[in-house]
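A common beginner's mistake is to predict each chain separately and then try to dock the pieces by hand. The better habit, illustrated here, is to supply every component at once so that their relative placement is modeled jointly.
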Amino acid sequence: MHKKLFIPGPVEVEKDVLEKLATPMIGHRTKDASDLQREISDKLRKVFHTKEEILLSTSSGTGLLEGAIRSTTAKRAIVISIGAFGKRWYEIAKANNVEADLYEVPWGEAVKAEEVDKLLSTGKYDSIFITHNETSTGVMNPVEEISKVIKKYKDVVWSLDCVSSMAGTKIEVDKLGVDVCITSTQKALALPPGMSICSFSKKAIERAEKVTNRGYYFDLLALYKYLKKKDYQYPSTPSLPHMFALNYRLDKILEEGLENRYKRHKEMAEYVRNWAKENFKLYANENFLSNTLTNVENTKNIDVKDLNKKLGERGFAISDGYGNLKNKTFRIAHMGETTLEDIKELIENINDILGI
Amino acid sequence: MHKKLFIPGPVEVEKDVLEKLATPMIGHRTKDASDLQREISDKLRKVFHTKEEILLSTSSGTGLLEGAIRSTTAKRAIVISIGAFGKRWYEIAKANNVEADLYEVPWGEAVKAEEVDKLLSTGKYDSIFITHNETSTGVMNPVEEISKVIKKYKDVVWSLDCVSSMAGTKIEVDKLGVDVCITSTQKALALPPGMSICSFSKKAIERAEKVTNRGYYFDLLALYKYLKKKDYQYPSTPSLPHMFALNYRLDKILEEGLENRYKRHKEMAEYVRNWAKENFKLYANENFLSNTLTNVENTKNIDVKDLNKKLGERGFAISDGYGNLKNKTFRIAHMGETTLEDIKELIENINDILGI
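With all components supplied together, the output reads:
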C-alpha cells in the first residue's frame, strides 16, 4: 500500500506531475532543451523573488551546498549550524580543504543577528553559510534580521540553504541580499528528488572568478558560464525527466499563487503546532518555528517507531526524530502540495492510534 | 513531433520504462528504499560482470569521473585521452588540485597497450584513467590488451569510463581488473539521463582510505561506507524516479540476455559501418571501432545541419561531429533499445534525403 508522505522530503507528488517525468526524451543540445531550461529559470525567478540567474544541478541539494562553499570562499568561510544540515555544510568545506570555521547554535534555537554581526566583525570571513529552515530541529532562522547585519559587510558572500523552505514560505532573495540561495525538488516544490536549484548573484559571480579550488561538476561559475554561452543548457547531460516535471510544477505553483501557497503552509503549520502544544510540546523555540515542518517533543514517551508502523498500516508516514533525537522527538512535514485537510486526516489518525 | 534519437545519449526510451519514473514516492530511509537499491546493485553486478560493490550517484557521468579521480589518486594520476571526454577527465583533476598528467592520443586512434606500459613504467603514477568508448571520435579502446599491462602494476588503481559502452558491449570488469568502472543511465542502458553508476573494487577502497582530498558528494568511499552502514541507502536523497526505472530496465536487459544484447549492438554497428564505408568513410581507425556509435567522415561534404533538419521533419535525430569536427563528421548512435530495423529505417531516410 502506498503511504502518504508527511516526512521532510521526499514529499507526496500528484499523479499528473509524476506523469510529466515520463515525457519522451529530447536531445540536451537542442533548441527544445534550451527553451525548457529558460522557461524553468524564468518561472523560478518568480518563486525566488529574484532578478539574478538561476542554476540547475542534477544532484541532491547537498551537491549545491558543496558548490556554494567551494565556489564563493576565497579567504575563509563561517558556517552557522543550527542542526544537522548546517553541520554538514562545515564537513563539506573540510572535505574540500576550504578554510572554514563552524559556529554552533544549540539545537532548537535560531541564530541571532547579533551573533552573526559579532562573527563577521572579526573580518576573518569573506563568505557565510546559513541554513534557513533546519529539518533536524524544526527551526526557521530569522533571515530578515540577519540580512540587515550581513548587508553591512560588502565583501561577504551569503549562501542560504532553503532546501526545505523555498516555495513553502516567502524568501525574497534579492531583498534579503542572498547571493546563493539553494533549494531542491523534493521538499516544498513537491517534486521527486534528483535535482537541485540555486540563484547566483552578480556578487557571487565576481567572487567565484577569484576562487581557484571550485572543482568541476559543482563549479557554480562553470554552470553559469555554460548557461550563458549555450543559451540555457547544462555542461553535462541533465536529468530531463526532472526538468519536464519542474516546468509543469512551476505552472501549477504560479497558478495557485505564491501568497496563497505561503498562507496554506502557514495554516498547516499552525494546526500541527496547536495540536503538538495541546498534547506534547514543541521542540524548537516558539519564536522561530518552521512553516514547513514541526518537530514534536515526545513528552508522553510514546513508541515513535510503533506509531509510524501503525500509521503505515493506515497509509501514512511521518518521521522519527533526527539522529540522536530518535524517539525523543517526532517530525511532521507540512509542505509541498499537502493540504490542511490532509494534515487533519493525519492528526485524526495519530489521535486515534494514541487514544488522545 | 517526437524525434527518434540516434544521438550518443540521451537515447530513445520506451513508454513502459518511462512510466516507471512516475512511480509514487517512498521515503529514502525505509526498508523499501534499501530493497530497491540492493536489487539494482545485484542486477548491475551481472551487467558489469563483477562481484565488487556497485555505487549509484544522482548526477551525470561527469560527476563520477570527478569522484573517481579524486577518490583514487594519492600520488599522481595519468589520464589517457583519445578524445573530448578523456580530456575532460584531466580538466576535472586540475580543477580539484589532483596531481595529474595528460597523455593525448591523436583523435580517431586508440591507445596502445605499449604506450600504457611505458607511461606506468615511469613509476610516477598510482592511478590511471582511460575512456573505454569515446563518443567524440567513435573509437573503442582495446581494454583486453591494456588490462594485461595494467595488471603488472599492483599499486595502480584503474578507472575506466564506460559511460557510452556498458550494456552495449561486453566489459568484464573483474576479469579485466578494472577498479572503478563508470557508466550512466542515458546511453546503452537506455534510460533517461540523471543517474550514474560505478563499480568499486577492494583495491580502490583501500586506496581511497589513503586519500584526503576526496571531497563530499562524489566521495566514493563515503558512498560505499554509507551503503554498507545503512543497508544500501544513499547519503543524501537519491533520484528515486531513476531508481524505479533502472530496476525495471535491468529486468528487461537480463531478459533479453547480455550476450544477445551485445550481438544486437554489434549487428547494428556493422550495418552502419558498411553503409558509411560504401558512401563516406569511417573517421576512426578500423581496428578500434565503437560498437555503440559510428563517427562518419563527411567525405561528400554534405550539409550535416541541413541533413539533420530534414531528418527531424521525418522524426529522426542524429549528431553532428563533436566540437571542431562539426560538419567534418556526423555521428550515428546505435545503442540501448535501438534495433537493426530502426537503424535500417534511419539509413533509408538518410539515403533518400541525400539521394544516394
